[in-house]
Design goal:
mainly beta; seven-stranded mixed sheet; about 50% strand; about 110 residues
């Protein structure tokens, strides 16, 4: 099983990033996928999730309206479009499969001027 995140980096406040997660080693289209994040010195927190078919999404209150989760089951990928980023959203962002406990290594997002 592998979950490989990409797309992180340094962005100015108010900017945008699109994270990608490439999945392999399991039946991707069968599982809800989630993005979580962990800021320095804080506990890991839920950001967004999407059901296996892509028709149902859920978001943390703090990101609703600014972040969009999507998936491409043909490519075994899940995405997180992040807009209007804030400095307090600096964190490592993780792709994961809640039902199986699979986690990627994470991708660093730094929001700073």
């Amino acid at each position: 099983v592998q979950l490989l995140e990409s797309g992180g980096g340094l962005v100015q406040p108010g900017g945008s990033l699109r994270l990608s997660c490439a999945a392999s080693g399991f039946t991707f289209m069968s599982y809800t996928m989630s993005w979580d994040r962990q800021a320095p010195g804080k506990e890991r927190e839920f950001v967004a999730r999407i059901n296996n078919g892509g028709s149902i999404t859920n978001y943390a209150d703090s990101v609703r309206g600014r972040f969009t989760i999507s998936r491409d089951n043909a490519k075994n990928k899940v995405y997180l479009q992040m807009n209007s980023l804030k400095p307090e959203e600096t964190a490592v962002y993780y792709c994961n499969v809640p039902a199986k406990g699979y986690w990627g290594q994470g991708t660093q997002v730094t929001v700073s001027s």
